[in-house]
Design a protein that fits this description.
This protein has 281 residues and is α/β, with parallel strands linked by helices. 36% of the residues lie in helices and 21% in strands. It is built from 11 helices and 10 strands. The strands form 2 sheets. A 6-stranded mixed beta sheet has the order 6-7-8-3-9-10, with helices on both faces. Helix 4 crosses helix 6 and helix 4 (133-142) runs parallel beside helix 7 (185-198). The structure holds adenosine-5'-diphosphate (ADP) and magnesium ion. Magnesium ion (MG) is lined by residues 79-80.
């Protein structure tokens, strides 16, 4: 330290003063994300234990703005638990989770996180089966509290335009008046992605989007997800390796709650550790 204090300092006070003057010694995570990194999502050293078992073990992961990231890994690797932490459903024992630079996800409730711009799509599609496709998007546009008001109220032209462009994006313009329950499994998945988009998320988390889809639906889903990235960050958990290869720029392999490998698909598929735990099976 540059100055000698008048009164003796105890060790922890001295350390704090030392660190504040010598930032290189600062604990890596003390002040949240490093602004020079510019990531959209920061997870650092996230640990989640269930009865002593570590579902996530010091997981560190960064997602860039506009990135499309695929997360793969064997069953039980911690993929869903990671999404639970990001969305506030599960609280980690330790670690740091920031959305952008300001939002400390570990201090926000689940609804607050959703409102802050993180949308999550679960594996099973959850659309309003009895209602037309268009009305599903209309409800999503106004949020859960507006259901009765929505059904009676007129749409603004801005809302109508947003719904039309979303229908176009998810490839369901021709089905706009059809009951959602009459859609194919793949179409329901697209509709649910559309419903999430109506909330204008900055980060979309999507769990196994192509499970149960036909080959053609899988290809269209790949195109859709690629087109969604850019304007927002998209994180996709998926087992279908052909699908991952078709959309992935950067792939993260989780294993036993930590990142085992990260990189482009060629690098991942030739990594001996990845082959051993996952691809070799
Ligand atoms: P993945 O999605 O990669 O298949 P999960 O995140 O679902 O893996 O699970 C990681 C590990 O944590 C698994 O061993 C699972 O059994 C365990 N686990 C997940 N949720 C709970 C829970 N609520 N209670 C106890 N164990 C859990
Ligand atoms: Mg899972």
């Amino acid at each position: 330290m540059s100055t000698t204090p008048d009164t003796p300092l105890d060790a922890s006070t001295w350390w704090e003063a030392f660190v504040s003057e010598n930032s290189a010694y600062a604990p890596r995570h003390a002040a949240g994300p490093d602004p020079s990194q510019g990531a959209m999502l920061y997870l650092e050293d996230i640990t989640v234990s269930f009865d002593g078992f570590r579902a996530l073990n010091e997981l560190t992961l960064y997602i860039e703005p506009g990135e499309l990231r695929c997360i793969i890994g064997p069953n039980g690797a911690g993929k869903s638990t990671m999404m639970d932490v990001i969305t506030g459903k599960t609280r980690p024992d330790k670690g740091v989770a920031f959305f952008g630079h300001q939002l400390d996800l570990l201090k926000l409730s689940e609804p607050e996180i959703a409102q802050s711009g993180i949308g999550r799509k679960f594996q099973k599609p959850t659309v309003f089966e009895q209602l037309p496709v268009f009305v599903n998007l209309e409800l999503a546009c106004r949020g859960p509290r507006g259901v009765w008001r929505t059904l009676g109220a007129r749409l603004s032209s801005e809302e109508r335009d947003r719904i039309d462009s979303t229908l176009n994006l998810i490839g369901l313009s021709a089905q706009r008046l059809q009951r959602a329950g009459a859609l194919s499994h793949g179409q329901k998945q697209w509709l649910e992605i559309g419903m999430l988009l109506m909330q204008e998320p900055r980060l979309l988390l999507i769990d196994e989007p192509v499970a149960g889809m036909t080959h053609e639906e899988t290809e269209r889903t790949a195109e859709l997800l690629v087109s969604l990235a850019g304007e927002r960050s998209v994180v996709v958990v998926e087992h279908d390796m052909e699908f991952v290869r078709s959309i992935a720029r950067k792939v993260t392999v989780l294993h036993e709650g930590s990142v085992l490998a990260e990189g482009d698909m060629d690098r991942i598929q030739s990594d001996p550790r990845v082959i051993e735990v996952y691809l070799g099976a």
